[in-house]
What we know:
This is PaaI family thioesterase. The chain is of the alpha+beta class.
Amino acid sequence: MNEALAASAFQNAIETYKQDFGTFFLARLLGLEITYTEDTCVVEMPVRDFEFNPQGSLHGGVIATILDISMGHLLNRQVGPGATLDLNVQYLKAARSGRLTATGSFIRKGRQICFLRSELKGDDGDLIASATSTWKVI
């Protein structure tokens, strides 16, 4: 593990986070870049070894987090704040290097319940993981 990189990422997160969408501590620690289109939320991140599981690839919890953020931020931007009721992740391929991009989109918008999906792809365009989720608008 690159301890200097891990320490630098942690220090940067401490110094630059704000408890708000896109700038909260975990987003800063993971190095997330969050952008929006009319219908999507795109979350990009570098793959770094301090986020790896013991098998030497990006930890599934980090993958689930990125997918969740892409959907939750889109919900907040288009409908309002919400809470995840259900998150289902399908892990398809290991991620070991490069940059990843999660793209969240709506399946259905309701007044109180919304359904979203997200796909996580690598630099090469290969699908790493996908997720669907159910959200309660609060």
